[in-house]
């Protein structure tokens, strides 16, 4: 059976802070917003976030600015260090992951066939394994994807193949394999999509994947170097703030009822973005560089960084150091304190771009300029 390698884990406005006079109705509305934010433990950005008018539906305005990217926190792994000053321009971001319903519209409109639905290509696969690895028999090169299958008892955590399997027939419509379904889960993040699938969807809808810097700036929600997307307390007032593996209910990776939750189940961060951490990992545009933050920190001025020119991961002994990998961010429903602490804004890892998995999805961004251009094309009756 072919087994892909899994890399080792590693409200949009505050009216009361705006420098302008507000009418009584506006003040009342502001009070309601703040009351709701307080009730939901929403992290309010330090300054007013004034979005451009007539923005894209379902997207939140992320104002851009300077921030400390990465982390020197005790929980941070080496690939997150050091924290360094970066600036990004403002952009619109999907308020939540692209959902099953949204991805279905794309497939129905285009007839697109995802990576998991195609026979694995050996020329692509062999870039992710040691040189000299023999080609598997054609009989086992079957369409499918990686699925979390768990274990029936506690195990040592040094061998991920105990809880992951390549399952023929697994795809975005059948995330756990042929017997599974997304029926009734239109509002869940689409998973089992590769980087290439995410790019195809982005091109169709007229958006793009965020850069790693844009993603982290957005995930922080205006909070400088907070441990989590909502602050420093993992469970403020005992409330769970994201969909991750709660070890109080069972030890990882002993199988139990785990999986994605509907988007919007948990409170948004300070920019109005749901599930920036937890639920499903998210593809971003950059190539993965294990030491990229260290190299980037040497620069005097870092503006709108696009990531390294190629992948580099000396920490993964199962693949060549320059095997193609794209950055994934945010963690998933499988992240936990025992094995994966990636439900943090600075956590990052590199993933084979042709390796769809049952806990990886994506969300998209668009600049104000590109959005205005798309609107003009639509008004003229052309496709963006």
What does the model show?
By secondary structure, the chain is an alpha+beta fold. It has one domain: paralog of FGE (formylglycine-generating enzyme). Helix content is about 20%, strand content about 10%. It contains 7 helices and 11 strands. It has helices at about 25-40, 100-110, 120-125, 195-205, 210-220, 290-295, 370-380; strands at about 60, 65-70, 85-90, 90-95, 145-150, 165-170, 280-285, 325-330, 350, 360, 365. The strands form 4 sheets. It has a 4-stranded mixed beta sheet. The longest helix has 17 residues, at about 25-40. The N and C termini lie far apart (about 40 Å). Residues about 1-45 have low confidence and may be disordered.
Q: What is the helical fraction, as a range of percent?
A: 10-25%
Question: Any guess at the CATH architecture?
Answer: Alpha-Beta Complex
What's the number of extended β-strand segments?
A: 11
Q: Quickly count the helices.
A: 7
Could you name the CATH topology?
paralog of FGE (formylglycine-generating enzyme)
CATH domain class name? Alpha Beta
Looking at CATH, the homologous superfamily is paralog of FGE (formylglycine-generating enzyme)
How is the biggest beta sheet arranged?
4 strands, mixed
Integer count of domains: 1
Distance between the termini: 42 Å
Across the major sheet, the strand order is 9-8-7-10
Task: Name some characteristics of this structure.
disordered N terminus; four-stranded mixed β-sheet; 7 helices; 18% helix; paralog of FGE (formylglycine-generating enzyme); alpha+beta
